[in-house]
Amino acid sequence: MTVLNRVHLNGLRAVETVARLGSLAAAAGELNVSASAVSQQIKRTEKQLGQALFERTPGGLVPTEFGAVFTARLGAGFRELAQAVALADEASQCTLVVSVAPAFASKWLLPRLSRHFARYPNVLLRIDASGRVADLDHSDIDIGIRMGDGKWPGVQAELLLAQEVFPVCAPSIAARLRSIEDLAQTCAITDERSMISWDSWFAAAGVEPVTFLKGARFTDPMLCLESAIAGHGVMLAWQLLTADALADGRLAAPFGVRAESGLGYWMVTSATKSESRKVRDFKAWIREEIAATMAQFRSLDSAA
C-alpha cells in the first residue's frame, strides 16, 4: 500500500487509457476531460514513478520499454477492478429490498419466505422492517407493503388485502363467551397506536358497544397478540396478524363477525421507476400467499 500511496489513481487511469486507445484525444474522450488534462496527469504520474512511460514523438505518445510492461500490468489491474465493480452491480440487481412493518414481517411474511427462496433461489431478499414510511424514490427499497387507505403521493399502490377486524382470544376465554354481552366480563388488550377501534366491530355485529374490564396496554401489536395468546384478555385483531395463531389453535375468534376497517394492506412501488422482474415476481408470489391465507380463513369459518 505504501507504493500505491505515492501514485494518484486518476493518473494511472490516464496512463492506462492512453496506452489502450493510442492517443491523448481518444483518452480524453473516454475520460471526459481535455487532452491537456490527460497529458498533465501522465507527466505527474511519470514524476511520481521516477520513470518515463511514453516517448514523445511527432506521431504522438509511444510507450517506452518500461511503459509497455507497466501499462500491460496496469490494464490487467483495471480489468480486475471493473469486474469487482460489476460484481457489486450484479449483487444489487439480484437483491430485492422490501419495506414492511415489523408486525407484518414477523407474524405473516417471515414464516412464508422459505417458499420465495425456493422459487427464486437467485434473488436475495432484504427485509427492511420499520414503522417509517419509506421514500421509494430516494432509497434502495424496491417495494413496500403498507397499511392504510392507499392514498400516498408519489407511489403506485395496489390493494393486496382489505383489512377486516374481529376479536381474538385464547380458546379458554372463548369458551366462556356465549354472547357478545359476555365481553363486559373480559379484559380488553389495547394497542395504543392502533388505527382501528371496537366501534366498527360492534356496529357490524349489530349491538351496542360493551364496556370491557381494563386490561394490558401496549404500543406494539405483536405484544398485544402475545398477550392474547397468553390468556390475558381479548384484542381486536385482523387477518394477517392472527392467521397462523388461529390456524394452529393458539387463538380463537369468537362470534364469527368481521368488520371492514376501511384500511388495507397495499403493495407500493415508485411512480417514477419501471418495475423490475424481481419486483413483478415478488408481487405475484405474495398475491398467491395472501390467497392461500384467506382460503385458510374461509375453512376456519366453515369449521366454526
Characterization of this structure:
The protein is α/β, with parallel strands linked by helices and 304 residues long. It is built from 11 helices and 10 strands. It has an 8-stranded mixed β-sheet, with helices on both faces. The protein has a two-stranded antiparallel sheet with strand order 1-2.
What is this entry, summarized?
With about 300 residues, the chain is α/β, with parallel strands linked by helices. It is built from 11 helices and 10 strands.
Strand order of the largest sheet: 4-3-5-10-6-9-7-8
How many extended strands? 10
Radius of gyration: 31 Å
What average pLDDT do the residues reach?
90
| Poorly predicted runs | none
- Morphology: rod-shaped
Distance linking N and C termini? 72 Å
Biggest beta sheet attributes: 8 strands, mixed
Structural class: alpha/beta
Classify the helix fraction into a percent range. Answer: 40-55%
Total helix count? 11
The helix/strand series, from N terminus to C terminus, equals HHHEEHEHHEEEHEHEHEHEH
Q: How much of the polypeptide forms β-strand, as a percent range?
A: 15-25%
Keywords:
two-stranded antiparallel sheet; single chain; alpha/beta; 10 strands; 11 helices; 45% helix
Give the arrangement of secondary structure elements.
Layout: H1 9-21, H2 24-31, H3 35-49, E1 54-57, E2 60-63, H4 65-93, E3 95-100, H5 102-109, H6 113-119, E4 124-129, E5 143-148, E6 155-168, H7 171-174, E7 187-191, H8 198-205, E8 213-218, H9 221-229, E9 234-238, H10 239-247, E10 259-270, H11 277-303
Parallel strand pairs: 3-4, 3-5, 7-8, 7-9
Antiparallel strand pairs: 1-2, 5-10, 6-9, 6-10
